[in-house]
Write a structure and sequence with these properties.
The protein has 306 residues and is α/β, with parallel strands linked by helices. 48% of the residues lie in helices and 14% in strands. It is built from 15 helices and ten strands. The protein has a five-stranded mixed sheet with strand order 7-6-8-5-9. Strands 3-10-4 form a three-stranded antiparallel sheet. The termini are far apart.
Length: 306
């Protein structure tokens, strides 16, 4: 479903209106940051919550600051507006998302280059900075059922494009709207599905795929349910997606007031591999464990907390 310029304009208007509605509902209930408190936000999916909890416990363990958790703040644009307004001090983000969705730059660059570009622009334009990468690259993952991948001998998106006209797709709202999302992917691979993609909550995509409600979904490479549901990730063989290294976005004013926060966040740099993040997500989504317990066990295993 390719969109013309007018369609893109109206899409941005609708997206902006949704952001304003969420901000009106969420932000008045958030008090501004205080000198003895750090407010950590997250987006509305499991991995963002998990990273937010890891940040919260790390700061609690290595500073004397209180940490307020303000998780599930919808998507990228809401979190960005919240941190710019000073309603939160820190939230987990991805370099590729920041590059394309916030900075509106083209999909390009290696991991180090994208990180440096985003960090520089965030500091100059927004008064924000990035912590060091956590260690994993959570790129978009185009997922199909493992049984279908084996039956059709599919490994790449280019191979899957041949079967796309027989398939029904399911994507999240952001993936449908953002510049590194569906429209560009469809153009890069010549994807045409049996019907317009279903727009679904991110948490519903994997179960819908497993239950044959859809045939392909845009998930994340570190989804905990990939193994649990026997899903197969198609290789992005044309390298459409940029790197999506997970990082903490932090207000520079917060670090000026509390330089010890920078040290606490830096200790998480490079500590989480792709496989470890997938296990953390599975502990929440597959085993239904409490995020605080899972985060504490992980930090302890890395020698970061007692």
């Amino acid at each position: 479903m390719k969109r013309d310029r007018q369609g893109q304009f109206h899409g941005l208007q609708r997206e902006g209106a949704i952001c304003m509605i969420f901000l009106a509902l969420l932000l008045p209930s958030c008090a501004p940051s205080y000198s003895d408190r750090i407010v950590i936000g997250s987006k509305n999916f499991t991995e963002s919550l998990m990273l937010g909890e890891l940040l919260a416990q790390q700061i609690e363990a290595h500073t004397h600051l209180k940490v307020e958790r303000r998780f599930y703040l919808a998507g990228t644009y809401i979190c960005q507006q919240a941190i710019l307004a000073g309603r939160i001090d820190i939230y987990p983000e991805y370099t590729g998302t920041a590059l394309t969705a916030i900075l509106k730059q083209k999909v390009a660059g290696d991991r180090a280059g994208v990180y440096q570009e985003v960090r520089s622009d965030y500091e100059t334009r927004f008064g924000l900075t990035l912590g060091p990468p956590f260690g994993f690259n959570n790129t978009f993952a185009m997922e199909i059922r493992g049984a279908d991948a084996r039956r059709l001998n599919l490994r790449t998106l280019s191979q899957a494009a041949v079967f796309a006209p027989q398939w029904h797709a399911g994507f999240g709202y952001e993936f449908m709207e953002r510049p590194d999302g569906y429209a560009g992917l469809a153009a890069a691979y010549g994807l045409h599905f049996a019907a317009p993609p279903r727009i679904m909550d991110l948490g519903l995509l994997a179960p819908a795929l497993r239950d044959h409600q859809i045939d392909i979904a845009a998930g994340n490479a570190t989804d905990g349910l990939i193994l649990a549901f026997d899903l197969s990730v198609l290789e992005d063989d044309r390298q459409y997606f940029p790197p999506y290294e997970a990082v903490a976005v932090v207000r520079q004013q917060t670090l000026q007031q509390h330089p010890e926060v920078s040290q606490a966040i830096a200790a998480l740099g490079g500590k989480i591999s792709d496989q470890e993040m997938q296990k953390l997500n599975y502990a929440l989504d597959g085993q239904h464990r409490d995020a605080k317990d899972v985060a504490h066990e992980f930090l302890r295993s890395k020698g970061l907390v007692q």
